[in-house]
Amino acid sequence: MINISVVFFAGARDIVGQNRLEMQIPALTSVAELRAILMAKFPQLESLATRAAFAVNEILVLTDTLLVENDEVAFLPAVSGG
Amino acid sequence: MSMRIKLTNEPIAHEEMVENCRTKSAGAIVLFLGTVREITGNEQTLFLEYEAFAPLAEKTLLEIAEEAASNWAIQNIEIIHRLGILHPGETSIAVCVSCPHRADAFAACQQIMNKIKEVVPIWKKETSPKGVSNWIHPKN
To answer: Domain A2-76 in CATH: superfamily?
Structure first.
């Protein structure tokens, strides 16, 4: 198992109830698999999760990226700036 | 060429941005201001609250500015996005671009705004006069 943290913003943070979650996940979990874990843990997150982008350590990544110990994953729901 | 990017909780001083972009090599300065609209459809907005994933938002804004600079003859560029609580009429974003000719400046400004709306990790929450708040997450 590896330790990672996930940070949430905007509507996703409201659903999760906190802006940062410390998690233990199996080694070699991909971002897409993490998304599925999060959707199972927080079913209301589903509609945001399917359109979310993800950053690992402040860099945007594709969802096949594999996570490693101490990664910080940012869950980025569809944006509405401007 | 200068490129300035900023996220701020303070009101945006757009006159300063125009002066920052002004240069003898430019024949055109285009300033775009995005302002908080009070009425959208049938809904009234009491205020908006903007938040950002700041480190990535700044990085992404810089990439957008660099892409614009590679597409058009931009002399100077400055982008400021406001965060926190904003009331109708206030400026939420300002993009200022100077170019030798106006067509480039208009086009660059337009592309920069389109990209910002699409990819920069910034979100807004609308609050109505009845006190109902909703984060805006576009569906497409």
So the answer is: Beta-grasp domain (3.10.20.30)
